[in-house]
């Protein structure tokens, strides 16, 4: 009802021009404003005038932005003949083969998704399987749990509970028997080294002579007398 009242006011009604020539004839740009008829004053509705956001006011002359005199002088002295003439080149590059292929694939994908018939899908039943862990898996889990317990114990260990100990360094002098044993072990080690490093090529070849001498008469009589 409020909008209807505002637009049905007599001041806002459309009025035709006085004559066709007056409506068509162009108005000069630099016309004397003193000869122009005053603009009709429209009555504002109480609904719009009461609202603070709908209150409008034109800025005063002092509030308008001002242009510096230097800028005005530069604009007045500017010579347009010094400007270089340029030709505007309109470029409309045609899409490449790859661009057309990508657009075609994208179009086919979108078309396929939008026109897909769900009735062609086959119905399937989901089978839930509960797989029991094997013996190896259980063993691995137990080992992992033990490791975690050990790591937690190490990380949370309180060093203040440790007892302070003093390290005693002892320098025991070996006895005579120990020295003799060490000497014997050293001699034995020297013999082993000599055997290991012995060069058999230094040996001289020899011939073995087997002898079996017969006993003499005196030897036989001595044996007999010894046996009697």
TrEMBL record:
<feature type="compositionally biased region" description="Basic and acidic residues">
    <location>
        <begin position="218"/>
        <end position="228"/>
    </location>
</feature>
<feature type="region of interest" description="Disordered">
    <location>
        <begin position="198"/>
        <end position="228"/>
    </location>
</feature>
<dbReference type="GO" id="GO:0003785">
    <property type="term" value="F:actin monomer binding"/>
</dbReference>
<feature type="compositionally biased region" description="Basic and acidic residues">
    <location>
        <begin position="60"/>
        <end position="107"/>
    </location>
</feature>
<feature type="region of interest" description="Disordered">
    <location>
        <begin position="17"/>
        <end position="108"/>
    </location>
</feature>
<dbReference type="GO" id="GO:0005856">
    <property type="term" value="C:cytoskeleton"/>
</dbReference>
<dbReference type="Pfam" id="PF01290">
    <property type="entry name" value="Thymosin"/>
</dbReference>
<dbReference type="GO" id="GO:0007015">
    <property type="term" value="P:actin filament organization"/>
</dbReference>
<feature type="compositionally biased region" description="Basic and acidic residues">
    <location>
        <begin position="199"/>
        <end position="210"/>
    </location>
</feature>
<comment type="similarity">
    <text>Belongs to the thymosin beta family.</text>
</comment>
<protein>
    <submittedName>
        <fullName>Uncharacterized protein</fullName>
    </submittedName>
</protein>
<dbReference type="InterPro" id="IPR038386">
    <property type="entry name" value="Beta-thymosin_sf"/>
</dbReference>
<keyword id="KW-0963">Cytoplasm</keyword>
<keyword id="KW-0206">Cytoskeleton</keyword>
<dbReference type="GO" id="GO:0005829">
    <property type="term" value="C:cytosol"/>
</dbReference>
<dbReference type="InterPro" id="IPR001152">
    <property type="entry name" value="Beta-thymosin"/>
</dbReference>
